[in-house]
Each structure stands twice: as structure tokens, then as C-alpha cells.
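Write out the 3D structure for:
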Amino acid sequence: MSTASHQLHDEIAATLERWRADEARVRQHLAAPGISHPEQVMEKTGLQMFEAIASGELPSVPIGAALDFFPIEFEPGRMVFQGHPSARFCNPMGTIHGGWIATLLDSAVACAIHTTLPAGRGYTTAELKVSYLRALTPDVPLVRAEGKIISAGRQVGFAEGRLYGPDGRLYAHATTTCVVLQPR
């Protein structure tokens, strides 16, 4: 192995170690999966809602528990989920099913929009486009889906996302259009 190969291997190992430490830190605060009651979230902005999930004040999200991914980082206009592409999410060809990838990316891009919403507002995905760039296999221990706002208005939000591994390889890209829902 060349010096450059050793260096790359060490960088990937360091990224994986950091990602695993991030996961351990986040998981120690997450509550059991469940559905928040409207009165628990009505007065919270989108960002405050994610802060409450991260602190364990609100339940963690059931889809994340079912598909083995969870929020790892967030700030206004940006959301990162980390997932485990394990064999239980494989299609018959032995690669990770596109639906798992799409769900992870949908969560990242839609939640990036959600972080910008004022209290009492919700959203729904009107359109999701996913481009699959390379096969993802269970040999990749962790992936991250990062969603970022393109534009967030009072009625519609647009975001894009990328699914990448610890070596920086890009597996899929997504864009979304979300409709912002008015309070009832």
C-alpha cells in the first residue's frame, strides 16, 4: 500500500470514528420513538422541535427507528441524518434498496425546510426527485444524508440533499419542493 493509500485509509477511519462518536452522543439523549401530541409542538418553531427531539423532551421519530437512521446535526436551513445501510435494507440484487435511500434523503431535505418554519406551521412534500449515482451496499458502515435549503418562503420551500459515505463518495442526490401548511 502506498503512502497516499495509507493516508486515505487513515482519513476514512478517522471520519468513521468521529461519526460513531457523534452517534453515541446523540443516541444517549434520544427518547423512545413515538408521536408528539399537537399541544407539545404547537408553540415550537421547527428548529425548537428538533432541539426538543435531540434533548429527549419529545419522542424520537418512528420512521428513523424502523429504518435505522436518526438526526445527527441541524441548524436553520440544514439537517443531517446518519443511517446504517445494513443487509436488512437490501433489494434482491444485494444493494441497498432505493426506497431506503429516498426515505433518508426525503427526511434530510424536508427537515431542512422544517428547521426554518415558525411555530404552528407544518409542511408536506409535494415533490421529491432522487438521482442514484452509484450502488450502496451493506459494506458501507454508515452514510449521511445532508439537506440544505435552496429557498424557504411562506408557502413553499425548496431544498437539495446529498447522501455520502465516510470516504466522501456521493451515492445519491435529491431535490424537494415542500408546501408550507398554515395553522389550523
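The mean pLDDT is 95.
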